[in-house]
Design goal:
Elements: E1 4-5, E2 34-38, H1 43-48, H2 50-57, E3 65-71, H3 75-79, E4 86-90, H4 99-108, E5 112-115, H5 120-128, E6 133-137, E7 148-150, H6 165-175, E8 202-206, H7 219-231, E9 235-238, H8 245-252, E10 260-262, H9 269-278, E11 281-285, H10 288-295, E12 300-303, H11 309-312, E13 319-322, H12 342-345, H13 349-360
Parallel strand pairs: 2-3, 2-5, 3-4, 5-6, 6-7, 8-9, 8-11, 9-10, 11-12, 12-13
Antiparallel strand pairs: 1-13
Helix pairs in contact: 2-6, 7-8, 7-13
Length: 361
């Protein structure tokens, strides 16, 4: 399947792929002082859960707070969302939260907890913190702790799952009484700040992928797209973590240093969001930055290979997905077992340039 193109802007970017669960609508008295939502630990998954967060807010009584608990690095992201009343950051997501966090949750007097992760430990901690009604996916034997658990079809390795992660989260809140999601993107309020690069005709590139090298389109392919963009009078910025600095150097190597910038490791999450919001377009691997750019409204092109676009496609209809399935895909490996990354190399720079030209024309 080649050149998968999303639906038109301002509409739901894919058909509703979630299972329908029996309704267990929340009552006004269930909320008490509000709802605490445990967001996923990965940036991309957290962004894919944002539509469900938006829909959940719509059924909350006036005066109730929507709080999220998330890894500390995501705190500025959720603070920038007007629908979120408070963020409870976790310094270490793989340990018990400690008495201070337990006490804080207990004092806030939440009536409902929603888990968008599959952790048994987190369900237990919310129960111990006094949250009376918990909801989430049936996973790791935690159903006994939940007021209602939701069982999703099992994901089989080597197969396209067919259920977008966003629809998994939406299915949970829909069962709780939330309305259907129409495809609207989240609202962010970002502090005004100067950009570290010229913003006019800016193309942002997310050439890394935290999950592993198998998901990375070759640096030389990103460089060809960057060179094409510069020839059109634009500016290019490569975004990523400090650990991806070398990848950024590979992409901008040999390009005009006053118009091609490697910003990997040089921006915090708010600066990243400002760059993505002000970019004319983005090109990305299947990554957290791809999801964040899509949520901020910029158009883009995503290159898929060993992962499943039916599960992790961007939440914006302005993004195009390029994927040419190989016999070994999707393998979900961090490193290509064959060492050749045939699925990623099947996508050519000229295909990406064509989709960018089509979107921006």
């Amino acid at each position: 399947m080649n050149n998968l193109v999303a639906s038109q802007p301002d509409h739901r970017p894919w058909p509703d792929t979630a299972p329908r669960f029996p309704a267990v609508p929340l009552r006004t008295e269930d909320f008490l002082n509000g709802v605490l939502v445990r967001m996923p630990n990965w940036l991309g998954d957290a962004v894919m859960a944002m539509p469900a967060l938006m829909q959940l807010k719509k059924i909350m009584p006036l005066g109730c707070g929507l709080h999220v608990i998330c890894p500390a690095y995501m705190e500025p992201l959720f603070n920038a969302m007007p629908i979120v009343d408070r963020v409870l950051p976790l310094a270490d997501t793989h340990r018990f939260w400690g008495r201070a966090m337990q006490g804080k949750i207990r004092k806030l007097y939440f009536g409902v907890g929603v888990l968008f992760n599959n952790s048994l430990r987190d369900a237990l901690q919310l129960k111990l913190a006094g949250v009376p009604r918990l909801y989430g996916a049936a996973a790791r034997g935690r159903g006994i702790l939940l007021a209602e658990s939701f069982k999703f079809p099992k994901i089989h390795k080597g197969e396209m799952h067919g259920i977008q992660h966003t629809d998994r989260y939406l299915a949970i809140v829909r069962a709780l009484g939330a309305p259907e999601w129409s495809g609207e993107l989240p609202e962010f309020r970002l502090p005004e700040a100067p950009l570290p690069v010229p913003s006019e005709n800016l193309l942002t590139l997310a050439a890394g992928a935290a999950y592993g090298a198998a998901k990375r389109w070759p640096s030389e392919s990103f460089r060809e797209v960057a060179a094409w963009w510069l020839a059109r009078g634009g500016t290019v910025a490569v975004l990523g973590t400090a650990g991806e600095h070398r990848i950024g150097e590979e992409v901008v190597g040999g390009l005009a240093p006053d118009r091609a910038f490697n910003l990997c490791g040089k921006t915090d999450i708010l600066a990243l969001m400002n760059l993505l919001k002000h970019s004319r377009a983005s090109v990305a691997n299947d990554s957290g930055l791809m999801h964040l750019s899509a949520a901020l409204g910029a158009p883009g092109v995503a290159v898929y290979g060993p992962t499943d676009y039916t599960s992790t496609s961007p939440i914006s209809a302005r993004w195009k997905i390029l994927f040419e399935r190989q016999p070994c895909a999707p393998c979900f490996r961090r490193e290509c077992p064959n060492g050749v990354a045939r699925c990623m190399r099947a996508i050519k720079p000229e295909q990406v340039c064509f989709e960018l030209q089509k979107e921006l024309s």
